[in-house]
Structures are given as structure tokens and as C-alpha cells.
């Protein structure tokens, strides 16, 4: 009598086979497809959000993949409501679906309650939508993360981060994309109880330009928006003159740091020279 076939095929404990479906856990409790989605974000441009005393600022390093592409195309920061903005890092096509969902949620809340959607409600609904794509085998996780900035008329500035796993946290400052850890170290030096939106614009520009490696990374444009008291809490692009001033400040600071580094290298070379013979 022929033996019955096994009901399942054993898989390696090293991870091979456990990444075939988003609904499969590895023996040590990991969901590999969600981790792969996080890896995709680490290769995308840096996005930074800062919650200030008078609003919230979002900034993104958008790589220029071709000189023939218009600088206004493929935006990395989107307005999803009058007082809400979303910055993205990762696959732009995936993030666009989250942006569309955010706009639908904001519009639906306005129609049902005749009020603008609170930032916490919008963040929780988006995180639930993202988490849904980790529960069914016919979905795959979103290959992106988003930063949500909100400054509603009856509330205080808010900043949220939604990850591919569906986890959502509120932050004083958050960063997604490449150079994440280095940018976090820079952000931790800021006093968030005092920083204003105009100061945050300069800080975001400084951090992005400082961490951009011109020898390895592609050229980029700096996108930046804010929702602050100057805009009556509405989500708007940072005015061109303020953004240009911030970029000039960041470039000058980077040039100064590079010059100081070259001077230190020259001093080290001089120290290595043998003393002159008597």
C-alpha cells in the first residue's frame, strides 16, 4: 500500500521558505516579507518630520533619476487634507495608494461629521489599512513608510509615522529612508520645546545635505512643506525664498565642515613627517 503524502513540506529554520507568504511566521516569530519591505525603504531618499512649537515641518530628499524629468513630477510630499500632509519614503507607487486612502478618509470624515479629521484618527486609520496588507496571502506589504503631519484648528501640532507592518507612533521628530540612524542622532540634539518651524526648515536642510554622499548618491532636490501659524495651520509648501536660504545655509555649513576636515588631514600628514636632520 502506497504511503499517504505529507500534508506539508518541512522548511529550513534559516528562513528559506518562510518568506513565500506574508501570512507565514518563521520559528522565531518573524514575518520576512514585512522585513523585506523595510529594506526597500532603507534604499530610498531620506524623509524627516519635526514637530515644532508653532507647527510641523516635513522635508524629503528626492533623487533626480534623469535630467529630462521635470522637478515638479513624482512628488514625495502630498497634501491629503487642508491641515494634513504626508511625506513618503520607499516605492512611490505603493505610497500613492496610501496617499489616496488618506484623502478618502479625510473626505469621508468631513462628510460624516462636518469637521476636519484629527491627526490621530487619520494615522490610526492609515495604520489599519497598511496592517491589513500583512494579514492575507493575496496581498503583499507596502514597500514604503509615511510621515503624517497635522495641525488642525482645534489641536496642537502632531507628527506620526506609519511603518509597513502597520505600526503607528507619534513623534517629536521622525526620519525614514536611508541614513536613518545618522539622522536620528542629529535630531536628538534639537530642543523640541523651543524649536520653531523656520528653525526646523534650516535643521532639516542641514541634516539632509550633511548626510548626502555626493560620491555615491544621485543628485537630489529638497522638497519641504509645513503647516504652521504663518499658513493659518494649513498644509503648504515652504516659500521658495525661505527654502533657498535654508539650502544655502546647509551647503555653506557642509563646505566649512569639509574644509575643516581637509585641514585636519594636512595636520596629520605634517605630524608623520620625520624631524629635520641636525
Provide a descriptive summary of the structure in words.
The chain has 278 residues and is of the alpha+beta class. It has six helices and ten strands. A five-stranded antiparallel beta sheet has the order 8-1-2-9-10, with helices on one face. Strands 3-4-5-6-7 form a five-stranded antiparallel beta sheet.
Using the alpha-carbon principal axes, give the shape: globular
Across the major sheet, the strand order is 8-1-2-9-10
Biggest sheet, in brief? Answer: 5 strands, antiparallel
How large, in whole angstroms, is the Cα Rg? 23 Å
| Tally of alpha and pi helices | 6
**What is the end-to-end distance?**
99 Å
Helix and strand composition category:
alpha+beta
What's this entry about, in short?
By secondary structure, the chain is an alpha+beta fold.
Write the layout of secondary structure elements.
Layout: H1 32-42, E1 47-52, E2 55-63, E3 77-81, E4 84-90, H2 92-113, H3 119-132, E5 144-150, E6 158-162, E7 168-170, E8 173-176, H4 180-187, H5 197-211, E9 220-228, E10 235-237, H6 240-272
Antiparallel strand pairs: 1-2, 1-8, 2-9, 3-4, 4-5, 5-6, 6-7, 9-10
Descriptive key words:
278 residues; five-stranded antiparallel β-sheet; 6 helices; 10 strands; 37% helix; globular
Amino acid at each position: 500500500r502506497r504511503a499517504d503524502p505529507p500534508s506539508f513540506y518541512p522548511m529550513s529554520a534559516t528562513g528559506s521558505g518562510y518568506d513565500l507568504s506574508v501570512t507565514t511566521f518563521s520559528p522565531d516569530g518573524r514575518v520576512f516579507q514585512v522585513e523585506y519591505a523595510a529594506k526597500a525603504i532603507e534604499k530610498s531618499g531620506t524623509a524627516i518630520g519635526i514637530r515644532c512649537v508653532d507647527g510641523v515641518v516635513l522635508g524629503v530628499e528626492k533623487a533626480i533619476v534623469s535630467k529630462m524629468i521635470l522637478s515638479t513630477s513624482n512628488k514625495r510630499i502630498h497634501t491629503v487634507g487642508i491641515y494634513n500632509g504626508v511625506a513618503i519614503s520607499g516605492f512611490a507607487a505603493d505610497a500613492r495608494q496610501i496617499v489616496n486612502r488618506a484623502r478618502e478618509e479625510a473626505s469621508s470624515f468631513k462628510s460624516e461629521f462636518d469637521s476636519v479629521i484629527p491627526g490621530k484618527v487619520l494615522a490610526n486609520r492609515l495604520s489599519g489599512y497598511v496592517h491589513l496588507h500583512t494579514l492575507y496571502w493575496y496581498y503583499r506589504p507596502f514597500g514604503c513608510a509615511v510621515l503624517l503631519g497635522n495641525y488642525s484648528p482645534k489641536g496642537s501640532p502632531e507628527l506620526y509615522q506609519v511603518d509597513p507592518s502597520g505600526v503607528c507612533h507619534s513623534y517629536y521628530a521622525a526620519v525614514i529612508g536611508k541614513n536613518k540612524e545618522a539622522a536620528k542622532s542629529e535630531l536628538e540634539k534639537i530642543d523640541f520645546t523651543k524649536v520653531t518651524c523656520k528653525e526646523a526648515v534650516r535643521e532639516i536642510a542641514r541634516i539632509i545635505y550633511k548626510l548626502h554622499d555626493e560620491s555615491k548618491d544621485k543628485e537630489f532636490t529638497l522638497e519641504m512643506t509645513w503647516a504652521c501659524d504663518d499658513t493659518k495651520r494649513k498644509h503648504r509648501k515652504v516659500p521658495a525664498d525661505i527654502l533657498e536660504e535654508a539650502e544655502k545655509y546647509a551647503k555653506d555649513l557642509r563646505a566649512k565642515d569639509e574644509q575643516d576636515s581637509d585641514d585636519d588631514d594636512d595636520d596629520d600628514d605634517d605630524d608623520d613627517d620625520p624631524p629635520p636632520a641636525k
